[in-house]
Design a protein that fits this description.
CATH class of the largest domain: Mainly Beta
Strand content: 25-35%
CATH superfamily of the largest domain: Pleckstrin-homology domain (PH domain)/Phosphotyrosine-binding domain (PTB)
Strand order of the largest sheet: 1-2-3-4
Number of strands: 8
Largest sheet: 4 strands, antiparallel
Radius of gyration: 24 Å
Shape: elongated
Number of helices: 5
Helix content: 40-55%
Number of domains: 2
């Protein structure tokens, strides 16, 4: 169970979940790829006999680079996996971070507007920045959220349900 599931209040249920887009892995994957290629070149030189007196050092350098190559992609994967975004029937909950957490929670009745910013690449690939402004302050923007327009639509739908008088049963005494 994640942060959101552990922090639901009485009568609250999750209506929509989002996550960080896979694009957060791209830069780290590129760095990992470059480190693996460099390690491969070092191993090639070490085992080809081009530098026989340096062979042992080159092998250890290649192994070290392979170990280091795992770090960027592992950190990015942990960042993506630990981020949680949800719309419930009562609140919007946003959480990022694995070691140190940044959480923002806002009741639906306190939300004034939901902003979505998307670059051209974000529109094509389906990610963007979400900013939720509420009464008495605003939330920090959350970047590279997957399907931000759908997230905004889900927030608006839950606000509509919460404040739609036709969904509340009232009895009239005529």
């Amino acid at each position: 169970m994640g942060y959101i599931d552990n922090n639901l209040i009485s009568g609250e249920s999750v209506r929509y979940r989002a996550r960080l887009h896979w694009i957060v892995l791209l830069k780290s994957a590129a760095i990992t790829f470059v480190l693996i290629v460099v390690a491969g070149l070092i191993f090639y030189i070490a085992f080809s006999g081009a530098a026989p007196d340096q062979s042992s050092i080159l092998k250890w350098l290649g192994v070290g680079l392979l170990l280091i190559a795992v770090v960027p992609i592992a950190v990015a994967g942990l960042k993506r996996r630990s981020a949680e975004f949800a719309v419930t029937n009562k609140r919007v909950i946003l959480k990022v971070g694995a070691v140190t957490n940044q959480t923002e929670e806002m009741f639906l009745n306190k939300i004034e507007s939901v902003g979505v910013e998307q670059t051209v690449a974000g529109r094509l690939l389906g990610y963007g920045t979400i900013s939720i402004r509420g009464t008495g302050g605003s939330l920090e923007p959350f970047h590279r959220v997957s399907a931000p327009l759908e997230f905004r639509r889900q927030i608006q739908e839950q606000i509509g349900k919460a404040f739609d008088p036709s969904t509340h049963s009232t009895s009239s005494g005529n």
